[in-house]
Every structure is written in C-alpha cells, then in structure tokens.
Amino acid sequence: MNLKGLIRDDKSITKTISIRNNYGERFEIESIHSLKGLFKVQGIKNATHGINLVIELEFDESTTDTKYICDNISINIADGDILNVPCVVFNF
Length: 92
Known about the structure:
Layout: E1 12-20, E2 29-34, E3 39-47, E4 50-58, E5 68-77, E6 82-90
Antiparallel strand pairs: 1-4, 2-5, 3-4, 5-6
C-alpha cells in the first residue's frame, strides 16, 4: 500500500484498507498489529464479502526529515491465515 501524502503539511494520514475473501465468504479478524508500531487501527467495518480497516499514521518531529516511512501491518485471520500489508509513506 502506498499512502501518499506530504508529511510536513499533515499531522496524520488516515486511509481505508479493503480486505476481500477470494471466495466471497465472510471471515473474522483475530488481531491486527503494526510491526514498528507506527500505524494504528481506528476502525473495523464489515463490508460485502470482506472487511474495511481504517488505519492512521501520526507524524512527529522525528518523521518530518525522513524521505519515507515504512512499516508492516500484520492481520491475523481467525482461521489461522496471516495477511501482511506493507505500508510506505513518501515525503515529497
């Protein structure tokens, strides 16, 4: 996922991630965590054949001089599968 935004102009970036099941079946999320702790889940909503996650990245003074920020969101599905979502925010 590429969360494009100007780090210096915004205090945070919020995006929605849509997760769909290949077979059109419902599924449940057991847990979600950010590897580096940079992203926070603001909401989980059921959608047709999937789930929408609202995630947020808040900036602080240490991130304003970096060219990009990388993290990985790990989503544990209740049936045992793990979905890893790489997230990159570029500072243009």
